[in-house]
């Protein structure tokens, strides 16, 4: 089964943040939307990294409360691995298992189409 087939029936946008956003704003998005991670886009709208709950924890441990005033680019996980809608679900799962990652952006012609 292709990833395109899996995400075909989904509605709603893929929430994301920008690399220049404040960590506090990205944390607010995670909490408000009740999600565990966000793809991070750069100025050209390409995926530059992943910002997850773990990134928040590591930043708080390292920088204390000052981490909330930092930019997402300074604490995100990068470089990012992604797949295309044409990849199979098994290919994506194998990549996630092999690289020990939990979040995988799906990038299509129009940018991030799934996560």
Protein described:
The protein is an alpha+beta fold. Helices cover 33% and strands 17% of the residues. It is built from 4 helices and 5 strands, in the order αβαββααββ. The chain has helices at residues 3-7, 23-33, 53-63, 89-99, and strands at residues 17-18, 37-41, 47-52, 106-108, 111-114. A 3-stranded mixed beta sheet has the order 1-2-3. α2 links the parallel β1 (17-18) and β2 (37-41). The radius of gyration is 14 Å and the shape is globular. The mean pLDDT is 93.
Main attributes?
single chain, two-stranded antiparallel sheet, 115 residues, 33% helix
Write the layout of secondary structure elements.
Layout: H1 3-7, E1 17-18, H2 23-33, E2 37-41, E3 47-52, H3 53-63, H4 89-99, E4 106-108, E5 111-114
Parallel strand pairs: 1-2
Antiparallel strand pairs: 2-3, 4-5
Largest sheet geometry: 3 strands, mixed
By DSSP, the count of extended strands is: 5
Q: What coarse outline follows from CA principal-axis ratios?
A: globular
Mean pLDDT: 93
Write out the strand line-up for the largest beta sheet, numbering strands in chain order.
1-2-3
* Poorly predicted residue ranges: none
* Percent strand: 15-25%
Rg over alpha carbons: 14 Å
Structural class computed from helices and strand pairing = alpha+beta
């Amino acid at each position: 089964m292709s990833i395109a087939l899996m995400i075909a029936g989904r509605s709603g946008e893929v929430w994301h943040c920008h690399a220049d956003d404040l960590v506090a704003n990205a944390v607010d998005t995670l909490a408000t939307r009740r999600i565990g991670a966000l793809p991070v886009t750069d100025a050209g709208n390409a995926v530059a990294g992943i910002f997850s709950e773990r990134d928040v924890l590591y930043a708080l441990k390292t920088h204390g409360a000052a981490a909330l005033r930092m930019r997402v680019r300074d604490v995100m996980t990068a470089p990012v691995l992604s797949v295309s809608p044409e990849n199979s679900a098994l290919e994506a799962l194998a990549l996630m298992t092999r690289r020990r990652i939990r979040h995988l952006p799906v990038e299509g012609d129009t940018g991030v189409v799934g996560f």
